[in-house]
């Protein structure tokens, strides 16, 4: 909402501009009227809209055309005053409007105490000719008639303008207004059944106006819609058509403030665009060496969004369901590459786990984008929070985790290095449960350099984010190097493949505290002797790394995930000694915990699904 209102009064000499201002201030008709009143400011606490209001008088006798132009440029509403008893001043109203102002205009017919008839018939053609005109008010400075109303309407024209909402010629709301209200309806339709039931209407009313509707008031609203629209009410709930009809009715009856209150509560600015402060709250600050994650309440909200769009209850979003979910966005945020970044079902549809994983990835990589997306979904409104920034947890500095030898983080990044053809992409896709056969169906055009899913460590569910680093040894960026664990992949069947991994490790990671793991990919093929001074096992022993882990995605079923559990464990516990990493008991505890909790997690999800 605007911080202040600046009202400029213009008109022919002796129409009573100055008298109107002085009558408002003193609440009596002035006996002596100067050529021009000084600018006055009405404090916010004495105005109905709680907004500071500045009232500026213009006098042709005292001011120049340049000064008039200057005042017009500063004003956000112009009151063109004419005398209802002076036909010439009425005729000159249209000439005054040709100033080509880009702000709302109020026509003010003063001196109504001097005539017994209204000037509305004469002024109506002028109002129809200029869409800038918000309304016309007849008043009397002498009798104090409609003085307060005049300035209230001027305020209202600034704070709740008709122009962006409604087209008088076509007698219907403008497309931008319909689009905004449609999004508001969809966000408020908590069960996505296409109607607002009594509970949803009450929540909407409380959200926008801080007061619920009593049962009779709800019925009265629905009855108004029923009388005017065939399909405005369905199953005793308000349809989208009924919702839009109500707002059209509010606007037509001069209650623009009702529609504007709703629009602004849901984040819209004066141009019916979502406000930048709404989409990108300034309260979130992320220090260096800290990461961003979704908190528990955010995951609950996203789960409810998934549930309301998973119409067939198959725990996956079909292309139609996904499109419906993102219908409240101005664009489709997820491209085809997302299907190769997270888990999907056999039909290639994003599963419940994949859906949450993609949100986790966005939060980690680009928290501002995540805030924007949550804003489109109406997180702060549905969760009744000040902003969507409360959905984000900023983790503590990684150096503190290392000092305390424990972490509270839930998302761990693993950067995957390896020469071209070493099997990096296959390693990423295998994490999503895809064997070589399924991977071969993936289009090169829609390949992703990220893969994210869950792993269980000591019974705790964590997210492991794999990032495939482009194999250009000389141009590794800080982003390529910043991670919780490094994965070095070589093709066990290619004698030249290991050398790349050794060079990357020695140049970039040998002197860091970042844990590293060597992966011997394509282990189903004949192993070749690596043309390097040390064998991979000797290299790992020398640099106190775990022994190379054999891996293949050329399996009949989904590839084994034990290796990803090991990576997550090492990322969580970078302080763990080499002796522990070699211990079979250590890895047995990890994998046993993962198996038990994976089974329990699946069982719990089936129970929740039945409850839904």
UniProtKB/TrEMBL annotation:
Its EC number is 3.6.5.-. It is a single-pass type IV membrane protein. Belongs to the mitochondrial Rho GTPase family. GO terms for biological process: mitochondrion organization. SUPFAM superfamilies: EF-hand (SSF47473), P-loop containing nucleoside triphosphate hydrolases (SSF52540). This is Mitochondrial Rho GTPase. One of its GO terms (molecular function) is calcium ion binding. Keywords: Calcium, GTP-binding, Hydrolase, Membrane, Metal-binding, Mitochondrion, Mitochondrion outer membrane, Nucleotide-binding, Repeat, Transmembrane, Transmembrane helix. InterPro entries: EF-hand-dom_pair, EF_Hand_1_Ca_BS, EF_hand_assoc_1, EF_hand_assoc_2, EF_hand_dom, Miro, Miro-EF-hand_domain, MIRO_dom. It comes from Oncorhynchus tshawytscha (Chinook salmon). The chain crosses the membrane at residues 586-608. Atypical mitochondrial nucleoside-triphosphatase (NTPase) involved in mitochondrial trafficking. Probably involved in control of anterograde transport of mitochondria and their subcellular distribution. Can hydrolyze GTP, ATP and UTP. Residues 2-160, 409-573 form the Miro domain. GO terms for cellular component: mitochondrial outer membrane. It catalyses: UTP + H2O = UDP + phosphate + H(+); GTP + H2O = GDP + phosphate + H(+); ATP + H2O = ADP + phosphate + H(+). Residues 297-332 form the EF-hand domain. Pfam families: EF_assoc_1 (PF08355), EF_assoc_2 (PF08356), Ras (PF00071). It is found in: Mitochondrion outer membrane. The keyword Aminoacyl-tRNA synthetase does not apply. Gene3D superfamilies: EF-hand (1.10.238.10), P-loop containing nucleotide triphosphate hydrolases (3.40.50.300).
């Amino acid at each position: 909402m605007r911080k202040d209102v600046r009202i400029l009064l213009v008109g022919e000499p002796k129409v009573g501009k100055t008298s109107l201002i002085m009558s408002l201030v003193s609440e009596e008709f002035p006996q002596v009227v100067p050529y021009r009143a000084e600018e006055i400011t009405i404090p916010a606490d004495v105005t109905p809209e709680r907004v500071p209001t500045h009232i500026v008088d213009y006098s042709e006798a005292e001011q120049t055309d340049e000064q008039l132009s200057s005042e017009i440029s500063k004003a956000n509403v112009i009151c063109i005053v004419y005398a209802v008893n002076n036909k010439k001043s009425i005729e000159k109203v249209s000439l005054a409007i040709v100033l080509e102002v880009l702000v709302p205009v109020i026509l003010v017919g003063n001196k109504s105490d001097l005539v017994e008839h209204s000037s509305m018939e004469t002024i109506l053609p002028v109002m129809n000719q200029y869409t800038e005109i918000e309304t016309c008010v007849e008043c009397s400075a002498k009798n104090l008639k409609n003085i307060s109303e005049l300035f209230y309407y001027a305020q209202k024209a600034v704070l709740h303008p008709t122009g962006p909402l409604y087209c008088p010629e076509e007698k219907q709301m403008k497309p931008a207004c319909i689009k905004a209200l449609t999004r508001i309806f969809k966000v408020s339709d908590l069960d996505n059944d296409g109607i607002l039931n009594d509970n949803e209407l009450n929540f909407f009313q409380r959200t926008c106006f801080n007061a619920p509707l009593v049962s009779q008031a709800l019925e009265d609203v629905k009855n108004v819609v029923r009388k005017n629209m065939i399909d405005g009410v369905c199953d005793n709930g308000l349809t989208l058509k009924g919702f839009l009809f109500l707002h059209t009715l509010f606007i037509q009856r001069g209650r623009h403030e009702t529609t504007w209150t709703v629009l602004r509560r849901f984040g819209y600015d004066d141009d019916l665009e979502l406000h930048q402060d709404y989409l990108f709250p300034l309260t979130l600050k992320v220090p260096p060496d800290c990461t961003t994650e979704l908190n528990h309440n955010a995951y609950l909200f996203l789960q409810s969004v998934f549930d309301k769009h998973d119409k067939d209850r198959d725990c996956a979003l079909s292309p139609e369901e996904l499109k419906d979910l993102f219908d409240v966005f101005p664009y489709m945020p997820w491209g085809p590459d997302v299907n190769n970044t997270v888990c999907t079902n056999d039909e290639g549809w994003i599963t419940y786990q994949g859906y949450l994983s993609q949100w986790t990835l966005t939060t980690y990589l680009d928290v501002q984008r995540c805030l924007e997306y949550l804003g489109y979904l109406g997180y702060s409104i549905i969760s009744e929070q000040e902003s969507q920034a409360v959905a984000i947890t900023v983790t503590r500095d990684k150096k503190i985790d290392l000092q305390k030898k424990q972490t509270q983080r839930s998302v761990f990044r693993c950067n995957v290095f390896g020469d071209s053809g070493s099997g990096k992409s296959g390693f990423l896709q295998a994490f999503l449960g895809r064997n070589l056969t399924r991977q071969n169906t993936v289009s090169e055009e829609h390949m992703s350099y990220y893969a994210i899913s869950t792993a269980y460590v000591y019974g705790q569910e964590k997210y492991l984010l794999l990032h495939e680093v482009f194999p250009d040894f000389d141009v590794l960026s800080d982003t390529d190097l910043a991670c919780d664990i490094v994965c070095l992949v070589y093709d066990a069947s290619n004698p030249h493949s290991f050398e790349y991994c050794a060079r990357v490790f020695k140049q970039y990671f040998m002197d860091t505290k970042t844990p590293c793991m060597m992966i011997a990919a394509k282990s189903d093929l004949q192993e070749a002797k690596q043309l390097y001074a040390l064998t991979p096992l000797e290299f790992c022993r020398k640099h106190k790394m775990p022994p190379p882990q054999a891996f293949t995605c050329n399996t009949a079923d989904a590839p084994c995930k034990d290796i990803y559990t090991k990576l997550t464990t090492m990322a969580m516990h970078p302080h763990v000694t080499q002796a522990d990493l070699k211990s079979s008991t250590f890895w047995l505890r990890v994998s046993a915990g993962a198996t038990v909790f994976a089974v329990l997690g699946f069982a719990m999800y089936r129970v929740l699904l039945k409850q839904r």
